[in-house]
Amino acid sequence: EYLSVEKDSIRTESCNMLGWCVENLVESSKPATSILKKKGSKNGGGAANTKQNSAASGWKLECILDVGRALQPRLTDKIAKVRNAAISACVPYFSERAKLISSADSKDFEKMITSIQNTLLWIMTNDSSAPNRALVAQIVHVSEETIPYVIERVKDVDVKVREAALDSLRENVNLDDLTEDQRVEILRYGLTKRCPSTHAKAVELLCANWLKSSKFDPIDLLDSLNPVLNESVCELATEVIINMASKIDCEDSDDVGVELVRKHFGGPEVRSFQQQILKKRS
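The chain above was modelled as a monomer; its predicted structure follows.
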C-alpha cells in the first residue's frame, strides 16, 4: 500500500525495500534447497523435506509474483526517481536463480516477466529521464529480441545512455550474436568523433570484445563487417585497431579508448594483440 501513497519519497523507498526483499528471496533459493536435500538424505526424512522444500518454493514464488505486480505500476510513475527505484527493484527477476523459484510450468511468472520486460523496453526508448534510459540499457535481459533496442540507444541524444548501451553490448553480447547490419550500425554511430567519450566506449567494445573474440585477427574481424559494402565503417575500424596496437603498451596515454582497453588485457594479450595487428602481411 505504501507504493501508492501521494508522497513520492515513500514510494521510492518502498520500491527500494521491495527490491531488496526480492533480491534476498531469489539469492536464497538455491542454498535453501541444497540444505533441505542434505538434511533429508542424512536422517531419512527425504520425503518430508521434499514436501517442505516444495512449500517453501511455492511461498517464495507467491511473494515475488505479488511484489512484481505491485512494482509494475511504479515503472511508469509520474516521478522519475520513483521509476528509477522500480527499475532497480526489477533486476532480480531476470536472474538465473529466479527461474529456480518458479516452476517449469509457471505461466503466471512468465507472463509477469514478459510484461515487466516490455515495460522496460518502452522506458529505454521513451522515458524522459536519461538516467532511467541508461539504467534500463545496463540491466535489461539481453536476448535476440532485446538486442535491437539496446543498439538503438547507441544513437541516444544523451551521452550517458549511449555509454550504457555500448557497455551492455560489450559485456553481454558476442560478435556472433549480431548480424552484419547490427555490427556496422554500432560502429557507425559509436565511432563518432563528435563525442570523445562515446567514441572511447565504442573502441573498448571493438577491441576488448570483438577483436579479442576474433583472436586478434583484424582480417577475420573486418570480413565480418563486409568491407565491400561497408567500406567507410571498415576504414574507421582499421584506423582504431592500428592506433590501439601502436599505443596500448605506452605507460602514459591521453587516449581514453586506449586506457579503457588496456584494463581488459594482461601482458601476454597485449603482445599477442600487437604481433597480430602490426605484423607484415603479404
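Confidence is low (pLDDT under 50) at residues 31-42.
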